[in-house]
Amino acid sequence: MQSKTVLEVCISKVHIMVTMDLIEACRTFTAVSELGSMTLGAAATGAPQPVASRRIAGLEKQLGARLFDRSGRGVSLTPFGQDMLASARRLVDLADTMMLDADRAKLRPVSLSVPPSCTTRNLAVLTASANSAGLSIDIRSAPPARRIDDLSGRRVRAVLKAVPEAEGAWYVPLGCAHRGPLTGPVRLAELRKARSQVTGHGPRLSGKRLRLLIEDDVPHVRDRIRRAAESMGLLPYQVVADSSDPAAVAAVLGDGDLLLCSDAEAEDLGLNWQPLLEPAVSRGYTLAATSGDDAEALGAFSEEIADCLGGVPAGTRSGDGSEDATGRNVPARATGRDVPAGTPGGIAGAEMHGDGSAK
């Protein structure tokens, strides 16, 4: 069985070599016919004259008839050569077109779909860093489900896929944002309707709803929040996955509800933010791509991607951020700090596969 496989590989390699030799022989054939000289034709193709002569002889042997009449001082096409010239030109033109298409394909940007919450500045830093490393990327924004659909439909070449924190190459700690000041970390039980006033900020939060952004309307975040809410005595309607992010934020501003979001998102919305302790929830992300080469190339910019997400690479417990009350690293709020372009971070811990899956 193994010998058969080796034989098939050898036959395939020989076939490729024969095909390439045929193209170069046809290229020499067309050049010699146009210039009427073996010497000039060889020079036009960049090959020594003995090589050009061998190519013509090999092509004549393969086709079974002479292409040139060498009886005079120069060379002239035989009737058979005249009949074969058009086919040879088409083959050479097709090969040249294919090489041009290959060059264009290599220059085509890698399309990357990211969460809508990624800021323009951080995405620009990622793009500039990639450009400095010779990689061109085309950034697109979409919610979680559409990112996966676009990857499956090959409308994009790579996505930041929403996954449970434990499976992610990056994670984003989530907390609660409110229009008013929050005096400390939030527990979901504080939203439970209270019959009497209690200490702390319970009276203000009692009976309020927790609003989820579209980015968090995924099973590993939404369902965990709902299970925790039910176990803590909250009513079913108190955890709301709104139809749009503006609708969720409007309820926070107008009704005093809480918004589940990252610290960076709260700052962008002008809301006060505190970590959510019970339950502690984070978004997880991994890089999924249709090509292992794309996954490896993009994975070199782990730090830039983390900044875009407003999170940190998985396993990070120290650095620019500070640990929250859960002991997890919370990214420091952006203050216009500069990130040097062209300085990619280390490859993230997720294993990328050509089929777009990630582990």
Automatic annotation (TrEMBL):
Pfam family of the protein (one): HTH_1
Entry annotated with the keyword Ribonucleoprotein: no
Family membership: Belongs to the LysR transcriptional regulatory family.
Domain HTH lysR-type positions: 21-78
GO cellular component: protein-DNA complex
Keywords: DNA-binding, Transcription, Transcription regulation
PANTHER family: HCA OPERON TRANSCRIPTIONAL ACTIVATOR HCAR, TRANSCRIPTIONAL DUAL REGULATOR HCAR-RELATED
GO MF term set: DNA binding; DNA-binding transcription factor activity
Key word tRNA processing present: no
Name of the protein described by the UniProt record: DNA-binding transcriptional regulator, LysR family
Annotated stretches, region: Disordered: 312-359
UniProt lineage: Bacteria, Bacillati, Actinomycetota, Actinomycetes, Micrococcales
